[in-house]
Design brief:
This protein has about 300 residues and is an alpha+beta fold. About 40% of the residues lie in helices and about 20% in strands. Strands 1, 3, 5, 6 and 7 form a 5-stranded antiparallel sheet that branches. The longest helix has 26 residues.
Length: about 300
């Protein structure tokens, strides 16, 4: 019996080695972590693979990046094709990525439908108590404060004293000697474009090497402020005073294309995970976030005005 099983394994090994695969890395991660989903297709000599028309994502998943496909030649004249997708999961629990269907065209033009997957995922909460990991914390009840008449009296006397002091300060300011106002000798310098300011701050953030100084969390605080300041200056939104959820509702398609808005909101969510969920940041994540921020600013930079025939 054992010899038969060993012989079957030897015969099936070449087929198993050539099997297409769908893999995730990591398959267990905290909520909000970027996960790599890689489709590997083994092609024979003269074969080529048509990319999938799309991938179905489970509830709570967000497609962050689609990486360019990679190929590697094989000794038999074929090649190994790999396509990587980067996703972020925003719901806690066990889930799965459904199988992906794609087409392989042989050397003589025949098409073959192939499937890879599904794969399992386990998304964990950053909170450690299993009983409350998937539930928001309740609001604390109001605190009863007992006030006495003496407290009101002291508050009224303090308000009266402030009003009297404000009145005398106003009289003094109003009766101050007036100084002649001289016209400025030079006009004020024009305001710098928001994208120039943002690019300069991002380059400074890169040079500061906060991870080298042991201040990885400060990196994501500064990156969030730079991106919010840029969107506020570029589009007129009060981004510094809005939460990420509020910006997701207000920063609509009328402001920027979908890919730019999705990239901006994805970076804010990554910063929020470090700022509020206290996820321990890593330098690779910071380097990728900085590159995405530079690409976002460059992609939303206004086009230069087209010179007219009268401009000389």
């Amino acid at each position: 019996m054992i010899r038969a099983l060993a012989l079957a394994a030897l015969l099936l090994w070449p087929v198993m080695a050539l099997a297409d695969q769908l893999a995730v890395e990591p398959n267990s991660a905290p909520i909000g972590t970027n996960i790599r989903l890689t489709l590997t297709v083994e092609l024979g000599k003269g074969e080529k693979a048509l990319p999938p028309s799309g991938i179905k994502l489970p509830k709570g998943a967000e497609l962050v990046t689609v990486h360019p496909p990679k190929t590697a030649p094989k000794e038999n004249g074929g090649q190994t094709l790999s396509q990587t997708y980067e996703i972020a999961m925003w719901e806690v629990g066990k889930t799965s990525i459904p199988e992906i269907e794609y087409t392989v065209v042989s050397a003589d033009g025949k098409e073959e439908k192939r499937h890879a997957g599904p794969v399992e995922l386990d998304i964990k909460s950053v909170r450690t108590d299993p009983a409350t990991a998937d539930k928001p914390k309740d609001i604390k009840p109001p605190v009863d404060v007992e006030l006495r008449w003496g407290d009101y009296a002291w508050a009224a006397l303090a308000a009266l004293a402030l009003a009297i002091a404000a009145y005398f300060l106003y009289r003094r300011w109003k009766n101050r000697p007036q100084k002649p106002v001289s016209a400025p000798l030079t006009p004020p310098a024009p305001a710098r474009p928001p994208y120039d300011v943002a690019l300069e701050k991002l380059e400074t953030l890169k040079r500061d090497d906060l991870f080298g100084a042991g201040r990885g969390r400060d990196f994501f605080f500064r990156l969030s402020d730079i991106l919010r300041e840029y969107v506020e200056g570029r589009y007129g939104l009060l981004a510094l005073e809005r939460t990420t959820a509020e910006l997701e509702r207000e920063f609509g398609p009328s402001y920027a294309p979908d890919h730019a808005r999705n990239a901006f909101l994805s970076m804010l969510r990554a910063c929020d995970m470090v700022k509020f969920a206290k996820v321990e940041p890593v330098k690779l994540q910071a380097d990728e976030a900085l590159e995405k921020a530079l690409m976002f600013v460059e992609s939303t930079r206004p086009a230069p005005p087209i010179p007219t025939a009268d401009a000389k």
